[in-house]
Amino acid sequence: MRVISEKFRQFRSDERGIALILVSIMLPVIIGFSLLVIDWSRAGNLHNDLQKAADSFALAAAAELDRSAGSWARAEHALATLVENTSRFSEAGFTTLTTVEQGGTKNCNSAGSISWCFLKSLPAEDRLPITSANNYADPDPAKGERETRFIQVKVNPAGFAAIFPASFLTGDSASNSMNIGAEAVAGFTSGVCDYTPVFICNPYETPATTGGITLEEAATTRKYRRRQILMRMNGSYMPGNFAFLESPDGNGAQELERMLASTKPRACYSQEGVNTEPGQMAGPVENGLNARFGINASYFGTPHGPAENVRMGAKSVQCKNNKVDITWETDPARGVGLERDSCQIAGTCTMMDKRMGEGDWNFTRYWQANHTVDGVTRPVPAEISGTGDDLPTRYEVYRQEIKDKIVGDPTLNSETGVPACSQQPVTSVDRRILYGAIIDCAAIEASGQKFSGRLNDIPVRAFGSFFITEPIKIDKDIYVELVDITGRGGRGTLDNFLRDEAQLYR
């Protein structure tokens, strides 16, 4: 018995081989944990692939959302042609994620591996869901494309089969699989810098009053750009009228005058929304813009000097006490500057509340009056020759005079395009271009907002450039030609002002 007891005690205290027992117990746990790690990594890689696809699709489409007609179709074209992502580790194996163009006729659609919706806004907080009632763009493309700022892209969920035998624990074979998807929201932001603090009510907002012509058509077609537009600042916000934007330098009379006269205003504005400033300051507007012609320009000094071509129809010019006093010519044959359209001269215009011309200005008479030297009229350069629909714009003629160095040609009154009173012209920028935000004022007021006070985050149709055809002679009235606009309908001359960016929001 003593021997047996001794053997049992030795056996009980013997620890040899215990590692094998522990390994046998822990081996299923180790294998299970390893399988979970592998599954977690595979699922993470699959989700990463799907998320990259969603991000890429959203960014490609967002870059086309410039709020112009056809932007939905262009966004869908970008989805279909610019992006092709792949995913791994789904039940389908190696998969190429693609889509197909759907024509841009719906605010929500799907094709191939993805679905998407065009959005006019995002919830105030990221935790809040995007809903059709609050955030989707209008289903009608004519309206929806104008208000679309974002696109929501969802990649169709992919099936994922786990290696870890969860069904062994639950008895449910479905426990071994799951669906993994991804979603992204991207938007397009566009802004400009070095812009004057001015907005213009879109003169082409109502095509019925402009011969059926839209802003985009006017910007890209010479015969419509030739139309002279009378802009007014009279407190009413109808097509063609203008007012002010919030300025970083303030909106007092002196600050506004300096901004309007400046060669490079310190102002940046976003197409997503601008803040307007009420005010009727005709004096600062006249002084600031006329400084670009060298009229009273000495008040601002050399940095705000006149344009290199200020031909404006002066009969006589006198320099008095650092001021420029002008008597205006009324006989077109002797040179009245870049003439107005015929209906504006006769007061018979019918478009845009009788303030838009037909673009039929008398170029031949202008050229003879301003470029006849010693009884011989200069030949018209090929770049601006033409009649009828091919008649040049005033801006093209003005630039041609600078290019051909004929700014100094005198009229019968001895007026030239050279700045008066020995003022030094500014050549680094075009001083006779007025830049401003173009806003659909009628639509804004129809939505219930009134311009009588300050308005915040007002959407911009486009940023535009306008050629000032003559100095301000009557308080508040500015005669201009449309030169170009930003965005899809423009001709690219404003690209150096633009700050465009497609970015992810969710």
From TrEMBL:
Full protein name: Putative Flp pilus-assembly TadG-like N-terminal domain-containing protein
Q: Which InterPro entries match?
A: Tad_N
Query: Which part of the chain is the Putative Flp pilus-assembly TadG-like N-terminal domain?
Result: 19-63
| Keyword annotations | Membrane, Transmembrane, Transmembrane helix
Q: Which Pfam families match?
A: Tad
Source organism, top-level taxon: Bacteria
| Regions that span the bilayer | 20-38
Give the source lineage, highest ranks first.
Bacteria, Pseudomonadati, Pseudomonadota, Alphaproteobacteria, Hyphomicrobiales
